[in-house]
Structures are given as C-alpha cells and as structure tokens.
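Open question from group meeting: does this chain pack into something compact, or does most of it stay loose? Before anyone orders reagents, we agreed to write out a predicted structure and look at it together. Recording both the input and the output here so the notebook holds the full record.
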Amino acid sequence: MGNKSQRKQFDYIKFLRSSPSKKTMYYMFGFTVLMAILLITFAIRPTLLTINGINKEIKEKEKIYEALDSKISALVQLDTQYVELSEDLDSLQLLYPTSGNFSLFMSNIDAVVSRNGFLLRSLSFTEYETDLYNVNTLVLSPWAVQISVMGPESNMDNLFEDLESMPMYPVIDRFSFGEEEQDGSKKFSISMRIYHIENIKFYND
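Structure tokens returned:
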C-alpha cells in the first residue's frame, strides 16, 4: 500500500515536470530572457550611448559659447577703451610723428624760449648720431634738434627745465655758449634729442 502511494506521488511530480504548461513556462522564461538581452543590446545600450554623446556635445558647445562670450566681452571693452583714448591717440601722433612732422615742437619752442627771456635765433633738425649716446628703444627712434638762443645766463636753468617739460619730452644732450655781449646776454647753442616713429604705417596698423 505504501509503495503504491509513493509510486503515485512520483508519477504525479513527473507529470507536472513534463506537462505542456511547465514546458511553456520554461519557453516563455527563456524567450523573455532572450528578448531582454536583445533589448538591452540593440535598443537601450545605443540609446544610452547616444544620450551620453549628446551630453558631451552640449558640454563642448557650452565651453565654446563661454569662450566666444569672453572674446566678445574683451572686444567690447577694447572698443570702449579705443573710443575713450581716441583723442589721446591723435595727440600721440603729434608727440611722436612718423613723417618727420615736428610741428608741435616748432609751435611750442618759440614760446618757451621767449618766456624765459631768450631770443630764438635758429632751429634745425638732423639725424641723431647713434654713437653719441646709447639709446635703446623698440619703436621710437631719436632725432636731433639744435637751437641757438640769445639771453641772460642767469635764466639758463629755467630754460633747460622748460625745454625738457615740453609735450614731446626733449632730452638735452649738450650745450655751449659764446662770449658775453655788451648788453650782458650770451649766445647759447643747445642740442636736444626728441623721438619719432620710423614706421609710417604704425598708427594705421
């Protein structure tokens, strides 16, 4: 009796294992796993890769935008500064001309000389003797100015100070003087150094 009962139980378990519904469940489970693998491989993974690529591209474009924005801000600032300094730039062309136009110097020299009680007798511009003094400049080139004045020796210090305070900032290299005249004045020859720019396109670049 007991053997029959055990045999029936074994047959029942065997039946359940081999029943069509159980096999169908196995097939469905296997199919589900296979579809999940295919879905991950061919759908979800490419989508994730695409999203990651889009995020990287967005970050790169943000960096480019920030760089362009910085350049635009710098250009706007430079343009503002240029407008503010345009008058100074125009004056700079008079202070350091490119074509040997020393009109600013010439328009000021007579007033400076007269103000100190001297008479301007002559004025000349010549090329500067480079071996006279060692002048190291990158853009500016020296030019020599010689003036001859008549006046009292007691006013020479003031004259030298006013000459070197002129807009073109002349530098007095040397001077000499002659015999005293009957009225107590002397003739003085003064050599000065001023600067100009050799590149005629300097202010246009």
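Observations to bring back to the group:
The radius of gyration is 48 Å.
Strands lie at 119-127, 140-151, 171-180, 186-197.
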